[in-house]
Amino acid sequence: MSTSSLAPYACHAARSRGRLVDESPSLTRSAFQRDRDRIIHAGAFRKLQYKTQVFVYHEGDYYRTRLTHSLEVAQIARSVARALQLDEDLAEAIALAHDLGHTPFGHAGEDALKAAMEPHGGFDHNEQTFRVVTQLEERYPSFDGLNLTWESLEGLAKHNGPVSRPRPTIAEFDAQWFLELDGHASAEAQVAALADDIAYVNHDLDDGLRAGLFSVEECRTLPLVGEVFVRVEQTYPGVEQARQIHAAVRELIGVMVDDLLRESRKRLAEDKPASVDELRQAGRPLIAFSAEVQEKLRPVRKFQFARMYRHYRVNRLTSKARRVLRQLFDIYLAEPNLLPDEWRLEVESAQSQSTQARVVADYVAGMTDRYALESHEKLFNPYLRL
């Protein structure tokens, strides 16, 4: 989308607040396109291919991983941004980066590191994403991290809304480069956050049905979801169930996107922000679902939590995952000589135990599911030849 066709409250790449470390502009890409490309080429992004969304990677090749989820979020974010005359590249960049800080084994892995890091400042995957893009990626000679634009970093720091109590990494960066944490993020970042909601609600339903954790009959009882499933079955009678499920998920995404666009246009028309700064200082998010859809989504999320995220088959995997990551963390902290040399040296040069623990948490959080399992096997199986 050309700059001239962007809404007045959209972010404009040519007016970006720039990068912490100044760089010459690209001759072929906008600042936000460059951010997106750096994220795609990051090592942390490639690792998402082997990080759990709900199912551990070896449970089946067809289930979504953090990588496929991030790509689906980016596609939805880009489509919504285009419809609202926002900068598609910025929305896509934030969507692609939003899960870079996730641990192996999804939320089970995060729970394990939260418990392990409780005496050392805690652990949060959103903060870890910020650490990845500002510190942990080491690819460029002139800076650590990816040196993303202010707008991308702001979006990652507060895409879920104003931040009153920032985590240490974000607070330290904010002291260096003010991110206006007390205000809302740009419309592009708000779009990315809700695209994430649309993607996981729909695709977790798809994966849960495919895995047999619940049935289409149960989905018919849910608000919003049930209406769509019934409508699809009436439209395509006699069609095999797998095709009906795909059609229902596709239509449900469309229903949620259409509602998001209607409500957002309504709010934007009411508040009339004349600039992105006015949008940031609005007293509410201006990109949102309607109250009706938000209310209908509550029992859907409750159903998914009970029937999918807490299904006994998933519980068995997450229980194992928590033990694996906690044991890896504990042994690496107690015996840093087991770490690769560059990580060992960083632990040994740390000035406090909490700093040592943070280095170990960074290392463990950056593992893929497969590498975490292999590392655990090598360290704890006495019969395995090293």
UniProtKB/TrEMBL annotation:
Superkingdom, taxonomy of origin: Bacteria
User: Which Pfam families does the protein's record reference?
Assistant: HD, HD_assoc
Entries under InterPro entries matching the protein: dGTPase, dGTPase-like, dNTPase_2, HD/PDEase_dom, HD_domain, PHydrolase_assoc_dom
State the SUPFAM superfamilies in the record.
HD-domain/PDEase-like (SSF109604)
PROSITE patterns recorded: HD
Occurrences of domain HD (ranges): 66-201
In terms of Gene3D superfamilies, this protein maps to: Hypothetical protein af1432
Q: Keywords, A to Z?
A: Hydrolase
Which HAMAP family does this one have?
A: dGTPase_type2
- Do you know which NCBIfam families this protein is assigned to? dGTP_triPase, PRK01286.1-1, PRK01286.1-3
**The family this protein is said to belong to:** Belongs to the dGTPase family. Type 2 subfamily.
Q: What is this protein called?
A: Deoxyguanosinetriphosphate triphosphohydrolase-like protein
In its UniProt entry, the species of origin is given as Aquibaculum arenosum
